[in-house]
Amino acid sequence: MEFNLQDVDAIIDQWGPKPASLLQIMLDINHRYHYLPKESLSRVAERLVMPINHVYSVATFFKVFSLKPRGRTIMHVCTGTACHVKGTPRLLDRLEQDLHLKPGETTADMAITLETVNCVGACASAPVVVVEGVTHAEVTPNKVSKIAKGLRQRESVASDQ
Ligand code: FES
Fold first, then answer.
1. Domains and CATH numbers, the chain
2. % residues pLDDT > 90 (the chain)
């Protein structure tokens, strides 16, 4: 979604331009663009009358926020101990092969971002991959390849429409 200052203003107006709304406003902006565009942070600081440094410190403190553009879909691969032992490195190798992505990178068409996360609390199902809130259990390299393929297909169908 293209950045638009009016959309940011609408989000700020929805929650009210007051410091207590900061987190909610940032969550909505992050949700809309999949990251926090620099211009949006300046606008938030200006309208909430707070130092830009404070807005940046919130943006960098919470892992949910990103200051770098991210893809429309984020694949979270768990690198917690249980998942690591049960094969996360092989999943990451396979994704690098299939999508040419290393953790933290995004496909050129902005479709998919690959990220790693610490334990997501599903160790009994290790190794796990979380995509759009769905936890995929006991993921093998073939299974992760299938998940990635499904996402790519969905994207190409969407761009054909
Ligand atoms: S280590 Fe991956 S879910 Fe716990």
1. 5-61 (no CATH), 73-160 (3.40.30.10)
2. 83
Q: Which of 87, 101, 99 minimizes the C-alpha distance to 146?
A: 99
Q: pLDDT, tens digit, for every residue of 82-114?
A: 999 999 999 999 999 999 999 999 999 889 999
Q: How far is the CA of 5 from the centre of ligand 1 (A)?
A: 39
Task: Name the residue of 125, 128, 130 to mutate for ligand 1: max ligand atoms within 8 A of Cβ.
Answer: 128
Q: Which residue owns the Cα nearest ligand 1 atom 1?
A: 80
Query: Which ligand 1 atom sits nearest the alpha carbon of residue 125?
Result: 3
Q: Which residues face 65 on adjacent strands?
A: none
Instruction: Compute the 3-state secondary structure of the chain and give helix, strand, coil in percent, each to the nearest 5.
Output: 55, 10, 35
State the Cα–Cα distance between residues 14 and 148, nearest whole angstrom.
Answer: 36
* pLDDT tens by residue, 120-140: 999 999 999 999 989 999 999
Q: Is 151 helix (H, G, I), strand (E, B) or coil?
A: helix
